[in-house]
Design goal:
With 217 residues, this protein is α/β, with parallel strands linked by helices. A 6-stranded parallel sheet has the order 2-1-3-4-5-6, sandwiched between helices. Helices cover 50% and strands 12% of the residues. It is built from 10 helices and 6 strands; from the N terminus they run E-H-E-H-E-H-E-H-E-H-E-H-H-H-H-H. Helix 1 links the parallel strand 1 and strand 2. The mean pLDDT is 85. The protein has helices spanning 19-31, 43-53, 68-79, 95-102, 115-126, 137-145, 157-167, 172-178, 183-197, 202-211, and strands spanning 11-15, 35-40, 57-61, 85-89, 107-110, 131-132.
Length: 217
């Protein structure tokens, strides 16, 4: 491992739903000279915080409550096209980094990576360059070459948000109340989600979400 880079004066926004993980990231990044200018524990909070603090790099977990990291990534880039976002995940499935990079992420790193690797990834992304975890790069390239598809890629942003909530066990009525929608509207979304993912029930939805690394068990 090369000598870890200095992140002096870099402004970082952390988005992860585990407070202990955020604390670990903060200590590591600040020890390298960066300034952590904000923290978020869900996708919606990450989007809001980005608009408030405008960090140099957003360090964001894929698996978070609400719209999740991928949904937040799409919303951030929709409003801030030049945003530099480094996505993190505990999963090694090539579908996850492939989806993140297609959505516009500047980089992807496994949470299993060495701490110095995280610092190198942040420094690389901050320079406007793309970073892909060396440990998953071969699998990612193979998946792209083989045309390995991400089943969730066919969903719209609203459908992804609904899919994640359904996969976590929330009912149609609960989702409708949360988003001020009619149960029939949510039911229509659910029908389209099931059609696109080729599943027939909530248990199968949950399996797809776990396999894609969008929720943890």
């Amino acid at each position: 491992m090369m000598k870890p880079p200095s992140l002096h004066a870099l402004r970082i926004l952390l988005a992860d739903d585990h407070a202990v993980v955020r604390m670990g990231f903060r200590l590591l990044l600040e020890g390298a000279g960066a300034e952590v200018v904000g923290e978020a524990d869900c996708g919606e909070a990450a989007v809001q915080a980005f608009g408030q603090v405008h960090p140099d790099v957003l360090l964001m977990d894929v698996s978070m409550p609400g719209i999740g990291g991928l949904g937040a990534l799409e919303r951030v880039l929709a409003h801030h096209p030049a945003a530099r976002v480094l996505m993190l995940s505990a999963h090694d499935d090539a579908q996850i980094p492939a989806r993140a990079l297609r959505a516009g992420a500047s980089g992807y790193l496994s949470k299993r990576a060495h701490p110095d690797e995280l610092l190198h990834a942040v420094a690389t992304v901050a320079r406007g360059q793309r970073y892909i975890d060396p440990a998953i790069a071969p699998a990612l390239a193979l998946a792209q070459f083989a045309g390995g598809g991400d089943p969730v890629a066919a969903l719209t942003e609203k459908e992804v948000a609904g899919f994640l909530q359904l996969a976590r066990g929330r009912s149609v009525a609960e989702i409708a109340e949360t988003h001020s929608l009619s149960p029939s509207t949510v039911g229509t979304h659910l029908y389209h989600i099931k059609q696109k993912l080729e599943v027939s029930n909530a248990a199968e939805l949950a399996l797809v979400a776990v396999r894609c690394g969008l929720i943890e068990v």
